[in-house]
Amino acid sequence: VLRLVKLLSRGEGIRNLLWTFIKSFQALPHVALLIVMLFFIYAVIGMQMFGKIALVDGTQINQNNNFQTFPQAVLMLFRCATGEAWQEVLLGASYGKLCDPESDYAPGEKYTCGSGFAYFYFVSFYMLCAFLIINLFVA
């Protein structure tokens, strides 16, 4: 351990690198807060727009992946942020999907859940995550 301290005291380049690394950790809470805010806003919007879609096994919106509760919505967004089948989730949330029988849809509106807004919602979320948030976190 003392050799490492002695090496760091002599090496100007290593000391500058270590100092920069320590200073970058000061901005980490701000970036984390930005990511949490983005996920929170998109999860709430997703719950309002796609929370009534019926959970059908074999589709991307099922019992494990849905927008019916806040934790499930955040988990679904995390899947989309990592790029895991976000296009299929987009298509599963588009207009004309079967409504959940427990939701309060009107008679004759069985296939009116989902929204055309899904295209803007998922593409904007993926672009923000892929090109902005991930680069901020890595930088």
TrEMBL record:
It is a multi-pass membrane protein. The chain crosses the membrane at residues 27-45, 118-138. It comes from the Eukaryota. The keyword Glycoprotein does not apply. Keywords: Calcium, Calcium channel, Calcium transport, Disulfide bond, Ion channel, Ion transport, Membrane, Phosphoprotein, Repeat, Transmembrane, Transmembrane helix, Transport, Voltage-gated channel. Belongs to the calcium channel alpha-1 subunit (TC 1.A.1.11) family. This is Ion transport domain-containing protein.
